[in-house]
Amino acid sequence: MSTRRRYQQKWHETLFDLFNVLFMAGLLVVIIYPFLHIVSISFSSEDSVVRNTVSFFPRGFNTSNYGYILRDRMVYFGYRNSIFYATGSTVLMLLFTSMMAYPLMIDAFPIKKFLTVYLSITMFFGGGLIPSYVLMDQLGMINTPWVMIIPGCVSAMTVFMFRTFFKNIPAELRESAQLDGAGHMAILFRIVLPLSKALLATFALFNIVGVWNSWFNGLVYLKSEELYPLQLVLRSYLYKLDMTAIMRRAGAQGGGDAFLRNQPVSPKGVQMAMIVVAMFPVMMIYPFFQKYFVKGVMIGAIKG
Amino acid sequence: MVKRAIQSFNNNRALFLMVLPGFLVVLIFHYFPMYGILMAFKNFSPRLGIWNSKWVGLTHFQGFFNNPLSGRLMTNTLLLGIYSLLWSFPAPIILALLFNELRALRYKKLVQTVSYFPYFISVVVVCGMLREMTSREGLFNQITALFGREPKMFLLEPKYFRTIFIASGIWQGVGFGSIIYLAALSGVDPELYDVADIDGAGRFMKMIHISWQAIKPTTIVLLIFNLGGILGTDFQKVLLLYTPDTYSVADVIGTYVYREGLLGGRYESATAIGLFMSAISFVILVLANAISRRLSETSLW
User: Fold this and answer.
1) Into how many domains does chain B fold?
2) At what angle do helices B267-296 and B69-88 cross, to 10 degrees?
């Protein structure tokens, strides 16, 4: 397009181009710097963290902050729990949502209209925090792993998006399978879902990241720390870790952890390392995730 | 004929079975809590259950309006919502338009990829970063020190709370938010720009008359959604950022419901406040939709 541009650019438009390029460079710095800064602190020596000399790059490179974290059982529990919650809720979400979305595109299904209204209502009204808590309490789900997996696994919006996607699959494929004697269940699992891999991958990834990052449900519904998702472990590091806690862990008066006694750490260094540990998986899957989420937004946009 | 009817019934039976798990999850976890709203009108006793608890009418609503804190809570919720909308809503639109004007495609791709990333970081991480950057030795104080200012504890001073809250929200969401507008922009026929060139339209003319027109419908739909959610502040982030020092501007309905309702055990009045706020939110959504339908023939339903 630019090669056969007929319009002669004016000086203030060139200035705008310059401004635009510089603005984007500024944006890059503003977004990247906080991450770089945190990673740098997490790999710096206790001394340079305390004297506050770290900015872009680690100073006095060492890994004692990570040594401190990897000696904490809670971090392993957090990882295990978050992985379990993320996979569990994602599997249920994909399964229940597809199974609910499929009948909603079959015209012969008698309660199609009713179900659409039934789901739509939940998009505008909800019980809120306290009634949900009381319900979980009555169901005996407080402080169980299930409270992190089941309640959020079906949402109206997702069902409608799945239905829209399924509808775009040529109906002939379903009909010919039906003529061959396949039931609805078989059609869903052998024909519709294999053709919806992009949809399933997109929603799986979004759901995994969403569950991985969530913390509030755990705070409300879980009592014992052994069940905490990783973000709650991170939260307690950020809000509760101070020098006394570190000294206690290291066992300054004898006993305790010899490694920690020989490797000085500061609360800030450990906290930044914990942030890195908590966002590490998301950073790792981000490059693969990328090509899907533009698609994900688009599927959402079609509905919106 | 009969055979066919049986066949169709069997087919439908499969369909009924398929929707059953989803139907039950929605019934139990979406509808039962709605029933639980009845608590707002009762003196809830866990022993009696919601239905048998004593009916007290609007007592809890009156209690909330007589509470000296209620004015502050509603003002905070509303102001945080309005300011967030004012700043956070236009930001991705402007960014998308700027992306659209970038000629260096590789550079554009790089900036886009980087700008989407913060959206996928948990709010706990973001608040952890913020606490670090706003600390006494943190980045913000290093910058203000260049201008000869005294170091401040930014998160302990009420006047900075909204700025920090909203700016970090934009930092996290602006890139990802721009995707939807970029998608609308990618649907524009390039010939339109060429034709405009022939007509002698400059960059800004094209931005206003072609690019902006292309994203206008998306903008309106999202604006209605955002207006509907104006009272639904991200109270989880507030919960991570506020301190008793900043309650005067930061305490919103959501945090109050959590703190006084759930932790303080005042279930009924917290439910009443929640109900009151969702009712107002719903009215705002309906109004915004009606106005938009009138003005631009775009509406949600």
Assistant:
1) 2
2) 40
